[in-house]
Amino acid sequence: MSETKISTDLSTLHTFRLPAKAQDIIFLDSQEQVNDIPSDAYILGGGSNTIFLTDFKKPIVCVRVKGIKVRQAKEHWSVKVGAGEDWHNLVLFLNKKGIHGLENLALIPGTVGAAPVQNIGAYGREVSDFIDYVQVWDRQERKLVNVSTVDCQFGYRDSIFKQYPMRWVILEVHFLIPKLWQPELSYGELKALNQPVSATDILNKVIAIRTAKLPDPKVIPNAGSFFKNPVISRSKYSELIERFPTMPYFELATGEIKLAAGWLIDHLNLKGFKIGGAAVHMQQALVLINSGGATGADVVKLARHILSVVYENYGIELEAEVRLLDEKGLVSL
Ligand SMILES: Cc1cc2nc3c(=O)[nH]c(=O)nc-3n(C[C@H](O)[C@H](O)[C@H](O)COP(=O)(O)OP(=O)(O)OC[C@H]3O[C@@H](n4cnc5c(N)ncnc54)[C@H](O)[C@@H]3O)c2cc1C
């Protein structure tokens, strides 16, 4: 385990790139080092879903465990991946090997280890569709444990790892990918692909859509969708659709309705709205950006402003999808 004791600039370790510093950064390169993980450390992958609002006083453990191993059985592929591998590189690697299924999740930034934490999803797929189990270091019990998909308690942008962020450190993700590939084309722009469609067609289309729609964090610092899409009751939906007939919605299997948080924000003409250096992205209202020189206070003020106008206009409480940290740890808005 390599450790940095000098004051380190965190702006290079999270994609929103606020000017925060940390005292104690530890790089976890292999499973053998798990005993050294401090119980109060924040676990960091690629920092694409994390915003350091201030300097950080607790230790940070950057998980960099590498390695991809593929085995095949009659009907499926088993793929064991180190938590520190880059997610998009894994998607490309598997596609090249003819192992298909993850292509809808292409170009999501971050590490493989963070993917189960918020059960990353896009274009009709979620990573939980392909997870067999996750190997973790249990910081409470101080032992290695394999957590089954059921025990991961996956939900929409949710899992047990997100609910108890100080307990487990994900070291490996074990995927089970059926050899019988089924394309997932239910999402609007993918429907238009010419048949017969290949996994590589989907991969290329997803990359093209995302490149056109979302700001590249390397160019415009951001953390992707800032808020989760709200899930509301049918009666609340009936009230809203009468007032906003063009409002997009998705019916869930539970009978509840999921709304597009980006549409709710955009409909209030907030694209481009700015507080200090924090702004609502001009093309994608769900993404807040660091337009230059943003501070943590700017981000919090902007996010709270959005929360309050969305509540005033629709009676809906948005919830942050990003992880916000002040000097002591995770905070809510
Ligand atoms: C431009 C852009 C587009 C995005 N698009 C999508 C999208 O389409 N769908 C989607 O779901 N997300 C999306 N995201 C969000 C983000 O990419 C994902 O949440 C990703 O999984 C975060 O990975 P990371 O390694 O950067 O996580 P980090 O920000 O480093 O960490 C995220 C959370 O996971 C925890 N964590 C990280 N690694 C581990 C580990 N090894 N063990 C235990 N806990 C850990 C952290 O403590 C933190 O709570 C997008 C982000 C950006 C910037």
Automatic annotation (TrEMBL):
Cofactor requirement: FAD
Keyword rRNA-binding: no
EC number: 1.3.1.98
UniProt keyword annotation of Secreted present: no
A Pfam family it matches: MurB_C
Entries under InterPro entries matching the protein: FAD-bd_PCMH (IPR016166), FAD-bd_PCMH-like_sf (IPR036318), FAD-bd_PCMH_sub1 (IPR016167), FAD-bd_PCMH_sub2 (IPR016169), MurB (IPR003170), MurB_C (IPR011601), MurB_C_sf (IPR036635), Oxid_FAD_bind_N (IPR006094)
Gene Ontology biological-process annotations: cell division; cell wall organization; peptidoglycan biosynthetic process; regulation of cell shape
Source domain of life: Bacteria
PROSITE patterns reported in the protein's UniProt record: FAD_PCMH
Alphabetized HAMAP family for the sequence: MurB (MF_00037)
Name by which UniProt lists this protein: UDP-N-acetylenolpyruvoylglucosamine reductase
